[in-house]
């Protein structure tokens, strides 16, 4: 076990020791800056539990992900304060890299605020994110590390940012995007072609983040700030297939899953996406 982690719930998959893994799951169960619907601290448990519903054989790729070498490093034990939590998450991810520098991590959240930690440690050149929100605020509800600020903090690290599926933002965020070369695609304008067009020229390596609220609210009612008018499940899967096959993706996350009932529709959406990500990684890499 890594320092500052605990085991919460087992997925519907055999796992291997972290040292031997090609892929590693790590939960970031933080919800201290939630602004609307609470419960993101249960996201990682809910996603793992939802995988019990799914076959490990993925029809789309003709692959059984039970045969992949996947480790589950558990969940990081996070303190109350958001900046302290980011620090503990960073330390844990650094430790994980020391134990196994080659495994591709898939982080499960937990608020989007936590994505800052893996990005700081893994130092991608680009951040490709699916999100209903721009997350480009300088500050929100008293914190610069609020979930609504994470894309801005990441862009300030010098990482190239592109955001897909957006349908919520402020004038201030729009101006920041424009002044800082941050590309984004409205959910109404989203297409596979628009995604490929933008991501094709982005510098590598790439960190891919899925804020689960990018999906239509009907697919993800249990998330911190649900928004109607979102993407379909296959929109995101097809984009991830392209980027994981064609570009150097060093990590993924699935964030902002919440709720207090096992088997909730949001967790099922996230669990199914997790299995597809593992399937495409097994197929393409
Ligand atoms: N990145 C995010 N998830 N942002 C959500 C911001 C919520 C805006 N509430 C609007 C309240 C208006 N009174
Ligand atoms: Mn977000
Ligand atoms: Mn969002």
UniProtKB/TrEMBL annotation:
Q: What is its EC number?
A: 3.5.3.11
PROSITE patterns referenced in this protein's UniProt entry, alphabetically:
ARGINASE_2 (PS51409)
CDD domains, from UniProt?
A: Agmatinase-like_2 (cd11593)
Sorted keywords for this record are: Hydrolase, Metal-binding
Q: Which InterPro entries match?
A: Agmatinase-rel, Ureohydrolase, Ureohydrolase_dom_sf
**SUPFAM superfamilies associated with the record:** Arginase/deacetylase
Q: Which GO terms describe its molecular function?
A: agmatinase activity
| Entry protein name | Agmatinase
Organism of origin is Pyrococcus kukulkanii
The record lists the lineage as:
Archaea, Methanobacteriati, Methanobacteriota, Thermococci, Thermococcales
């Amino acid at each position: 076990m890594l320092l500052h982690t605990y085991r919460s719930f087992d997925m519907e998959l055999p796992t291997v020791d972290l040292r031997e893994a090609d892929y590693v799951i790590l939960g970031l169960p933080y919800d201290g800056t939630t602004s609307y619907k609470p419960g993101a601290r249960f996201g990682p448990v809910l996603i793992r539990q939802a995988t019990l519903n799914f076959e490990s054989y993925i029809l789309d790729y003709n692959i059984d992900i039970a045969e992949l070498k996947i480790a589950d490093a558990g969940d990081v034990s996070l303190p109350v304060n958001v900046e302290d939590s980011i620090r503990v998450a960073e330390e844990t991810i650094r430790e994980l890299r020391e134990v196994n520098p080659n495994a591709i991590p898939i982080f499960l959240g937990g608020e989007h605020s936590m994505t800052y930690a893996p990005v700081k440690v893994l130092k991608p050149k680009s951040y490709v994110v699916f999100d209903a929100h721009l997350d480009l605020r300088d500050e929100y509800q008293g914190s610069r590390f609020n979930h609504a600020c994470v894309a801005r903090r990441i862009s300030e690290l010098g990482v190239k940012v592109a955001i897909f599926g957006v349908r919520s933002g402020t004038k201030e965020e729009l101006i920041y995007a424009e002044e800082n070369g941050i590309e984004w695609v409205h959910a109404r304008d989203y297409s596979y072609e628009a995604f490929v067009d933008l991501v094709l020229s982005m510098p590598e390596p790439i960190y891919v983040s899925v804020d689960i609220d990018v999906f239509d609210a009907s697919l993800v009612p249990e998330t911190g700030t649900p928004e109607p008018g979102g993407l379909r499940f296959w929109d995101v899967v097809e984009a991830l297939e392209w980027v994981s096959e064609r570009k150097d993706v060093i990590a993924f996350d699935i964030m902002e899953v919440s709720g207090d009932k096992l088997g909730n529709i949001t967790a099922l959406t996230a669990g199914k996406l997790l299995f597809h990500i593992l399937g495409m990684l097994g197929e393409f890499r």
